[in-house]
Amino acid sequence: QVQLVESGGGSAQPGQFLRLSCAASGIRVGAVNMHWYRQAPGKNRELIAQITLSGLLNYHDSVRDRFTISRDTAKNMVYLDMYDLKPGDTAIYYCNAAGPEGSWGQGTQVTVSS
């Protein structure tokens, strides 16, 4: 049974940094494409970062150059480093394995406000 557990969300001021973590079990993060999605209030869930099983990184335009996705295969963890946070980054952030038909975490709230 695949389980993904996000942590690290919370409140931040514009320009600050947060790191989200995703602890995986029942699946090896180095063997599948791993993703971070987010869903802002009143909006659809959107894919913002991907790390493929070969290590290729892809980002949504809105977070490119500010967010970094990475993984630690020894710890079976995936991370999202979020720099220069903006109010528009306020959303629930979800870890996902293997795409929309794959496995999801429960989500972690990130709120950016001054």
Question: Can you put this structure into words, describing what you see?
Answer:
It is a single chain. The protein is mainly β. It is 0% helix and 50% strand. It contains no helices and eleven strands. It has strands at 3-7, 10-12, 18-25, 34-39, 46-51, 57-59, 67-72, 77-82, 91-97, 103-104, 108-112. Strands 2, 4, 5, 6, 9, 10 and 11 form a seven-stranded mixed β-sheet that branches. It has a four-stranded antiparallel β-sheet with strand order 1-3-8-7, with no helix packed on it. A hairpin with a 4-residue loop joins strand 7 and strand 8. The chain is globular. It starts with a strand and ends with a strand. 29% of the residues are buried.
Structural class: mainly beta
Radius of gyration: 13 Å
Average the pLDDT over all residues and give the rounded result. 97
Order of helices and strands: EEEEEEEEEEE
Q: If helices are DSSP runs of H or I spanning 4 or more residues, what is the number of helices? A: 0
What fraction of residues sit in β-strands?
Answer: over 45%
Largest sheet: 7 strands, mixed
Q: Which spans have pLDDT < 50 for at least 5 consecutive residues?
A: none
Strand element count:
11
Write a compact overview of the structure shown.
With 114 residues, this protein is mainly β. 0% of the residues lie in helices and 50% in strands. The chain has no helices and 11 strands.
Give the key terms:
single chain, 114 residues, mainly beta, 7-stranded mixed β-sheet, 4-stranded antiparallel β-sheet
